[in-house]
Design brief:
It is built from 22 helices and no strands. It is an all-alpha fold. The chain has one domain. The longest helix is centred in the middle third of the chain and has 35 residues. Keywords: Cell membrane, Membrane, Transmembrane, Transmembrane helix. It is a multi-pass membrane protein.
């Protein structure tokens, strides 16, 4: 139990700032839905589906490799070598994107708007250069600096975005800010993002002060052999998460305006699974270095099994918080003039449970990272990507973004299952599968019950009182079923 408490502590240390950071980012997205119509938000969604794909190429698995090799390599040598590699490759990749920006803009559905791709390249450039310094902060257990930089960066972005999109138009109308163009919107949001990313690099200047231009070619080759499969895994993951938003306008049988409007609705509602996403991100911040640090212990498999159980318990509760209170989420995204965002609320529970499956999958991936079978992870991720591609092309024309939501659900469920089965073969972990499935099944059943109650038209207060009761039932079942483990976990004597 002591190991679990250490992970809980690490998750809190890195999770709280991550939660605040992601929540502020969520607030920023809500602000965008209040100033952008669905069509414009669709453009934001498509451009920001492109950036994560490029980020995988730009970072090529070096963050995970840093955690892996700090176990056996002198840290300064590793830090310098990976930073040299990252700086050189970032300049190279950025140059390629800038040169190809007109073609990329056309391919993304922004004909003649190469400037958008150029601005996105600026975001990628600065974000990539902070990768290894952030990894070093995590590996060295420096959560305060990590939190300060993350929070300061998002605050800068929010302040700039709100000023440019809310106050600058008013000042321009009064004869000020001659540079401001009221016909632009998405561009200014990306500019604010790029400036904030540059500030993040500036905030990490002290970490870069220890960097020396020293490159160990032998070490680099060893790192690349480990990390290159992570590129394929990352790209597959981005296909699973972002492909629907990239291809939606191309495969949906309607005009670009209608397609972009529907894409904007889907993107806004996808963000409403933010509680699940934030929880998973916070967990991963603490879990990745924790898993590697525990790998040489005899009881590591038992520790991983307990982590999975507690993770699933928490994710079930997070799913219910999202799924049982959709009316409140609806109010958050429909405060602006465009009320059409609420049309997509029915996909939120599907996406929320799909994201839970993704979180479980992240837990399961430890088997191929520890056994150096990253190539197996590639095959799992590529299989999921194939499912995503086929189902999106098949279902989007028939069911619009509802088809995309269910494609995401099927994809993550299949990846989770495949990783579990292969993991039990190469690195057996005694996961409590009946309990894991039971808790997820209970959460899903309570949502179905709530959906039935809501359909009876009982009114706002009875429906939400029922939601609170249902959430309480879930927590009570968890507390009773796990009372012994929870007591040990909370005990000061444990571990």
């Amino acid at each position: 139990m002591g190991n679990i408490k250490k992970l809980a502590g690490a998750t809190i240390w890195y999770g709280v700032p991550t939660i605040v950071h992601r929540f502020l980012g969520f607030i920023l997205q809500l602000f965008l839905t209040s100033v952008f119509p669905a069509e414009k938000f669709g453009e934001v969604g498509q451009l920001y589906a492109f950036i994560p794909f490029c980020n995988i190429i730009f970072t090529y698995g070096l963050e995970t490799s840093y955690f892996r090799f700090t176990q056996s390599v002198e840290k300064d040598r590793l830090f310098n070598t990976l930073n040299v590699s990252m700086i050189v490759s970032t300049i190279l990749f950025s140059g390629i994107l800038l040169i190809g920006s007109p073609v990329l803009a056309d391919g993304l559905g922004f004909p003649g708007r190469a400037d958008l791709v150029m601005l996105a390249t600026g975001v990628l450039f600065f974000d990539t250069l902070t990768t290894i310094p952030f990894a070093r902060l995590r590996q060295e257990g420096r959560p305060r600096k990590f939190a300060a930089v993350k929070l300061a960066t998002i605050v800068v972005q929010i302040v700039l975005t709100v000023f440019i999109l809310k106050y600058a138009p008013k000042l321009h109308a009064q004869g000020h800010l001659s540079w401001y163009n009221p016909d632009r919107g998405v561009e200014y949001f990306v500019i604010a993002n790029m400036i904030a990313s540059a500030c993040s690099l500036l905030f990490l200047s002290k970490e870069f002060s220890t960097f020396r231009w020293k490159f160990d070619k032998t070490l680099w080759k060893e790192v690349i052999r480990y990390s290159w499969p992570l590129i394929a895994i990352g790209l597959g993951g981005m296909i699973n998460e972002m492909l629907s938003r990239l291809i939606f306008p191309q495969v949906y049988p309607a005009s670009r305006e209608v397609s972009m409007s529907l894409l904007g609705i889907f993107s806004a509602n996808y963000k409403l699974a933010v509680l699940i996403t934030i929880s998973i991100t916070a967990f991963r911040m603490g879990a990745e270095p924790f898993f590697f640090n525990q790998s040489d212990r005899k009881d590591a498999p038992q520790t991983y099994a307990r982590v999975m159980k507690y993770f699933t318990m928490f994710m079930g509760a997070a799913f219910l918080v999202v799924a049982l209170f959709l009316d409140i989420w609806s109010w958050l995204i429909t405060r602006g003039a465009d009320k059409s965002y609420a049309e997509g609320l029915h996909v939120v529970p599907v996406l929320a449970m799909a994201t839970v499956f993704l979180g479980i999958y992240y837990n399961l991936t430890i088997w191929y990272k520890l056994t150096n079978r990253n190539l197996m992870g590639v095959w799992i991720t590529m299989g999921g990507a194939l499912v995503t591609i086929v189902l999106n092309i098949w279902w989007i024309p028939q069911f619009s973004y509802t088809g995309s939501a269910w494609a995401t659900f099927v994809c993550y469920a299949s990846m989770m299952t495949a990783s579990y089965l292969l993991g039990q073969k190469y690195y057996p972990v005694p996961y409590e599968v009946p309990k894991v499935l039971g808790y997820l099944g209970l959460a899903a059943a309570l949502y179905v019950l709530h959906d039935y109650i809501k359909a009876q038209g009982l009114g706002f207060w009875p429906v939400h009182i029922a939601a609170v009761v249902e959430l309480g039932v879930y927590l009570a079942v968890i507390a009773w079923s796990e009372r012994k483990d929870i007591a040990r976990l909370l005990s000061r004597k444990a571990g």
